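Researcher: Good morning. I'm working through a list of sequences from a screen, and I'd like to move beyond sequence-only analysis. For each chain I'm collecting a predicted structure so we can compare shapes side by side. This is the next one on the list. No need for commentary yet; just the structure.
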Amino acid sequence: MLRRVISANDENGNPVFTEDSMIEARSAEALPGVAMHHIWGADGRVLPRDGSQPSWHSHFPPADGWRFVLLTLQPGQAAAPIDAPTESQLEELEEAFPGLLTTVEPGTEGMHTSETVDLVVVVDGPITLELSDSQVKDLHTGDVIVQVGNVHRWVNRSSKPCVVAAVVVGTRFETSTAAAS
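Model: Good morning. Structure tokens for this chain:
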């Protein structure tokens, strides 16, 4: 459980706390060792003045949407779905993490790509970030990562759970590789 406190404005525009509650992590049998708190998110750029939860529908945000998540990965685990999940496991996975499987590269043990910029901080490490071309970066508590729509996966090679917090911002890939001037 994670405590979530929300502040916003009352009907007169005064700052108030609108929520102080515990939220549960999402998990799925087909994604062993992964627990994720979906803290907040929206499918567009909205500011709910009253602190109400904006609407969002998928694990990764669409362009102009965003997510704030806390990922806990157990020791010896990669954030990767199991091989050959059953139909009920796939249904549970889709319910907990809608659309996640559509981003996973087949046969890659969890390598995935999303049209997002991921702003990540390692809250309690170590954790390893692997890229599709076998590049590996070991990260530790306090390290920050800016990940720009590349193929990757997270692996916990340590003997303790690791935790990363991320703000995931939906965007679109450029149609050209040339940088804008």
